[in-house]
Amino acid sequence: MRRLDQGAPLRAAIRAAGLDIPHLAARTKELDPTGKGLSPAYVGFIVGAGKTAREECSKRAADLITRALDPEVGPFFEDVVFTLDESTSTRRSKTAVSVKSGLAPLPEQLLDQRELSTFLRKSMSWIDGQIREAREAGRTWPGLHYVGRSRRFDPRAVLAGMREERAQISA
C-alpha cells in the first residue's frame, strides 16, 4: 500500500486524534488479532515526513493504522498497481509505420532509465544488469529503444517482458 500525499492525511489524523507515534503503535497492538501490532519505529517510518519516511508499507500495516485512526476520517493509503493510465492528451503524436524502414512505431510514452527505475521500483544498476544479461544471451531487453545515444524504455513492453520471463522461470 502507498500512503496518500506523502503521509499528510495520516499526520493530520494523528494530530486530530490526539495521538503520537508510540501511542498509535500501542493502539495497533490492541487492534491486531495476533496481538503483535506495529513497532513505534515502523509506524514512524510510515507516518513520518523526513528522509527516512517510507511511501509504501504492507497491507496489514495500512489496515492497522487506518483502523487505529478512525477510518471515517478518510483514506490514508492506496493500492499499488503496476499499470499505466491512458493518456488523456488531445495532442497525441501519431507515428505511422514507415514502409521503407520496416520499423514499428514508437509507443506514446517512453521513459528514461531513472523514470523506469522509479516506475519498476528497481535500481538503475539492476536495469543495466538486465540489459547486459540480455545482450550476452543474444537478445534485446524488452521495451529498450535507443534514441541517438540515450536509452529510452517502453514501460508496457518492459512489464510484458518481465511477466513472460517470470512465467518461464516458474514453469
Structure description:
- The chain is mainly α and 171 residues long.
- The protein contains seven helices and four strands.
- The strands form two sheets. It has a two-stranded antiparallel sheet with strand order 1-2. The protein has a two-stranded antiparallel ribbon with strand order 3-4.
- The longest helix has 16 residues, at 155-170.
- It is elongated, with a radius of gyration of 22 Å.
- Residues 83-101 have low confidence and may be disordered.
Please summarize what this structure is.
By secondary structure, the chain is mainly α. It has helices at residues 8-17, 21-31, 40-47, 59-68, 113-120, 124-136, 155-170; strands at 2-3, 77-78, 144-147, 150-153.
Which regions are unreliable across 5 or more consecutive residues at pLDDT < 50? 83-101
Order of helices and strands: EHHHHEHHEEH
Form type:
elongated
Beta-strand proportion: 5-15%
Could you give a short account of the major beta sheet?
2 strands, antiparallel
Strands, total number: 4
How many helical elements?
7
Return the average pLDDT rounded to an integer.
81
Structural class estimated from helices and strands: mainly alpha
Give the % helix.
Answer: 40-55%
| Largest sheet, spatial ordering of strands | 1-2
